[in-house]
TrEMBL record:
InterPro entries: NTF2-like_dom_sf (IPR032710). The lineage of its organism: Eukaryota, Metamonada, Parabasalia, Tritrichomonadida, Tritrichomonadidae. This is Uncharacterized protein. Residues 1-79 are annotated as: Disordered. Residues 15-28, 55-79 have a biased composition (Acidic residues). It comes from the Eukaryota.
Length: 289
């Protein structure tokens, strides 16, 4: 049982019809209503209004406690994200997309490359031809340039009749050879006769007889077995012609040991009573084609 108190609307002239709504709650839990005559109307603790107010307060307190717990959990979660573990967890959640992640590239296992490096060059040559017959020789039209016929017979005799190549050189002719530096037995053999521009007159051969001896007895024993593949030529002056040949040749650098190498050969031909070679230089290198 509870005491019922009726409110007089005439006591709140400024509120008028809004008096029918529930009065506003005060923070201390009581609902006093003051009149102009300082009369207080108090709702009994056992009244339904008071019981409902208490229930509402308990619900609000429970909601506040739940909100505080959620805030604590959120704070703990933020702290957990800021602390980076020493090891990766298999079932860890995905990283926050808004956070910058520094990837240590050196820790990524990369597949080792099989490509050659400067320290370990790839010495395997694909599609390397093994005999001179595998190469296509140059063809010169002997009618298109004055000295084409002369050069054609010179290369033929250098291969098949090296003993008579001296007749192709002028009395003041000069011959020399330079060799690429490589760990190749054939190149090492020829490098002993290589010309060094830093040493004046080093390994230069002058005169037809000395040129014959240098080529036949030291450099190209058995003949200069060469196949010129390309060439360029021009007239330097009246009666003076220039050639540059590119090709391959086979060298017998030791007994029963042969090697196919590349060469670039520059030749200058002068004309007096007949054509004669005045300058002859050969550059020998590993095959590049």
């Amino acid at each position: 049982m509870y005491n019922e108190t009726h409110l007089n609307p005439s006591a709140f002239p400024e509120i008028n019809e809004e008096i029918q709504d529930e009065p506003e709650e005060i923070e201390d839990g009581s609902n006093p209503i003051e009149t102009e005559n300082e009369e207080e109307v108090i709702i009994d603790d056992n009244s339904p209004e008071k019981i409902n107010d208490n229930n509402n307060e308990e619900e609000e307190e429970e909601e506040e406690e739940e909100e505080e717990q959620e805030e604590d959990e959120d704070n703990n979660g933020d702290l957990a994200e800021e602390v980076e573990p020493d090891m990766d967890y298999i079932y860890s959640p995905p990283p926050d997309a808004t956070r910058q992640i520094d990837i240590e590239l050196y820790k990524i296992n990369k597949k080792k490359s099989s490509h050659p490096t400067l320290k370990a060059p790839n010495l395997r040559r694909s599609n390397v031809k093994t005999t001179l017959a595998d190469y296509q020789p140059l063809q010169l039209d002997i009618r298109s340039f004055p000295t084409h016929q002369y050069m054609s017979t010179f290369f033929y005799d250098s291969w098949h009749n090296i003993e008579r190549i001296n007749v192709y050189y002028d009395q003041k002719a000069r011959f020399s050879i330079s060799v690429e530096i490589q760990e190749n037995p054939a190149l090492i053999h020829l490098s002993r006769y290589s010309r060094n521009m830093l040493l004046p007159n080093a390994n230069n051969v002058d005169g037809p007889a000395n040129i014959l001896r240098a080529q036949k007895d030291y450099l190209f024993k058995g003949g200069f077995k060469a196949i010129p593949m390309t060439c360029s030529y021009m007239t330097l002056a009246p009666g003076l012609f220039s050639y540059v040949f590119h090709g391959v040749f086979e060298i017998d650098y030791e007994k029963d040991k042969k090697e196919i190498l590349g060469f670039d050969r520059s030749i200058i031909i002068g004309q007096r009573d007949r054509y004669l070679i005045t300058n002859d230089h050969i550059y020998v290198h590993m095959l590049s084609y």
